[in-house]
Amino acid sequence: MCDSSDGDVLAINADPEAKTGSEADRSMPVEAPSREASIRFTLAIASLVLVADHLSKWWAQARLEPGICSPETCLSVFGTRLRFHLVHNTGAAFSMGEGFGWLIAPLAFVMAGALLLVARQTSDRWSLVALGLIVGGALGNMIDRIIRAEEGLFSGGVVDFIDFQFWPVFNVADMAVVGGVGLLVMRQASQPDDVAGDDVAAGDVAGDDVAAGEGTVDG
Question: Are strands 83-89 and 75-76 parallel, antiparallel or unpaired?
Fold first, then answer.
């Protein structure tokens, strides 16, 4: 009379291709976000940056006066070097490149479009956050150049108002661009380790499959 437990062992050994639950889970592909989902996520981050940027610029325009900083025109944060000093910048970020807004704005538009194309090919959430910050900041300043233009398209001055007195005056859009670039660099620097880890895991699975195949041949 054959014991039922022996029958179970024979049934398991009879199927050499059967994998344990952990092996099956490891070999299952992880579904990446769709291209449309990546674009939507990036645009959502960019929209948040745009709203924050233009709300802060609206406040600066309403509360501060442009020109040389004085107690009447600037707002100092007590006990720090931070002050809010309204400046209209026709150059690049951080009040640099004065007078080149006509060239900077189209480049920013092209860059934003290129970054959205990159976002379509990206599944890493933090990289998408970084791209959204850069796109939102670039578009935020570009909108300033358009709506405040007086001498031709893109000739308007960008509203800068955050002043630490030892650094050029800047705004929320500038912060978003710099923060996004920094985050993107960090994510790219960490990618080789992630890829290597995936390759090792894939190698382990392949090794298990080879071992299983050898066991079947020996049997």
Answer: antiparallel
Please name which of 132, 130, 119 lies closest in space to residue 33, comparing C-alpha atoms.
119
CB count within 10 Å of CB 109 equals 14
Whole-angstrom distance, CA of residue 136 vs CA of residue 175: 11
pTM: 0.67
Question: Contact at 8 Å (CB) between 64 and 86?
Answer: yes
Are 80 and 162 in contact by the 8 Å Cβ rule? The answer is no
CB-based burial, 79-106: b 16+ in 10 Å, e otherwise: eeeebbbbbebbbbbbbeeeeebeebbe
160 is catalytic: yes
Q: Where are the domains of the chain?
A: 33-64+82-190
Question: Rounded to whole angstroms, how far apart are CA atoms 153 and 165?
Answer: 31
Catalytic residue, candidates 53, 124, 144, 160: 160
174 among known catalytic residues: yes
Q: For residue 158, which phi and psi values (nearest 5 degrees)? A: -75, 140
Task: Considering the candidates 53, 144, 163, 174, report the single residue annotated as catalytic.
Answer: 174
Per-residue confidence in pLDDT tens, the chain, 219 aa: 545 555 554 444 545 555 555 554 554 444 556 788 899 999 999 999 999 999 999 999 999 988 788 777 888 887 788 999 998 887 665 556 666 666 777 788 888 888 888 888 888 899 999 999 999 999 999 898 888 877 767 777 889 999 998 888 899 999 999 999 999 999 888 876 544 444 444 445 444 544 444 444 444
